[in-house]
C-alpha cells in the first residue's frame, strides 16, 4: 500500500489496517530477508494450517548472513510438502 501510494508511510499504513506501527515495521523488516526465503514463504500460501512460521520465529534470521539465512529454507521445504 505504501508503494502504490494508498498509505504515506508505515504509520499511516498501521492506522489504515488497524495494527500498531511497530507491528508494521516488524513485518516490513522481514522483506530484507534473502529473496529466496521471501519467495519460499510466499509459496507456502496464506493462511497456513498451523502457525509454524511466524514473524517472531523469522526475526532472528534478520541478523544473519545470507548463507545463514538460507538455513531456514530447509524448514520451509518441510512445510511445503
What does this structure look like?
The structure is a single chain. The protein has 81 residues and is an all-alpha fold. It folds into two domains: 30 residues; 49 residues, no CATH class. It has six helices and no strands. Helix 3 packs parallel to helix 6. The protein starts with 9 loop residues before the first helix and ends with a helix.
What's the helix count?
A: 6
Coarse structural class: mainly alpha
Per DSSP, what share of the residues sits in E-state strands of 2 or more residues? under 5%
Mean pLDDT: 84
Give a quick account of the main beta sheet: strands, pairing sense, barrel closure. Answer: none
Write the topology of this structure.
Layout: H1 10-17, H2 21-30, H3 35-44, H4 55-58, H5 66-69, H6 72-80
Helix pairs in contact: 1-2, 3-6
